[in-house]
TrEMBL record:
SUPFAM superfamilies: Nucleotide-diphospho-sugar transferases. This is Uncharacterized protein. It comes from the Bacteria. It comes from Zoogloea oleivorans.
Amino acid sequence: MDTRLTICSVSFGHGHLLRLNAQLSAQLNRDFEQRVIWRVAENAPANTEDCITSEHGPFAIEHGSNETSRGASYHHADALNRLIHTTRTRFLLVLDPDFYILSPDWVATIPDYMERHGLAFFGTPWHPRYNRNYRYFPAVHCMFIDLEKVGKLQLDFLPELNRIKMPGKSTNTLLDRISYFANRRRIPWDTGVRVFERFANQPLISSECTQPVFRLDAHNFPEFDARNWKHRLVEALLPERYCYIPKRRNTFTQSGFVEHNWLASPLPNRWEESLWQGRPFGLHVRRSFNAGSRDNQMETEILEQALADLARQVTNSPLR
């Protein structure tokens, strides 16, 4: 089997984000272009600004999905499935264009770590602020998969769109009949939920997640105040599926890049940081979130400086 790592990404006019991603990856991994196959499906129409081209980096560019009638999540996942089902290497990385891996030599160290620890999946989970999504399992933003443990045709990243309107209407339990609790209940539906539900609780399938940085403040949940003892008491008494804050210990941290002095200034609120083994692992810019109302030029400048600063940190201080 091909010993290279296949990276699968879906773009929608994300040429510049992918260019930065390829540049950072080449900086952190020796002989990067020889050790990976980076396949990109472009879902945007041909006349869209910043469509991916060969000038953006060492990408194998393919046509994306034509299924646009069912929304962005379905469109994205449909293209992703096509890439994954034709992958020919043992290890696969599903990576969003705007997720930047910061671990040194991750092309080699992550597959090696997975093999030594018997992991089928490794990656970064949904950020806890997205409390409706699944927890404690890698999300589609950054998910390494060992295809010797999980068959590629078993992987289906399509969302469950029929679940979107379910909160508040279910009568499965007494709590679900009360709107306050029903509106908190976790009903995962977005990209990757089928993979989670098929593999997360299988006894012979192991996974591991990095730690998202989750500061318990009003930027995450305006309706929940972690400093209020009544709010904390409600969380303590509720089952996990109704909680804003993850109950499992050490699955998130409140200390991120600034608190550890890896960056001098805080990043924009909606950007997501993650750690692994106590060091920077990933930065998710999340351009899909409210992208139209954000200042592209300002965010590009912040991103380029942050990546340069973080790359210096991780190359000077290797992970354990």
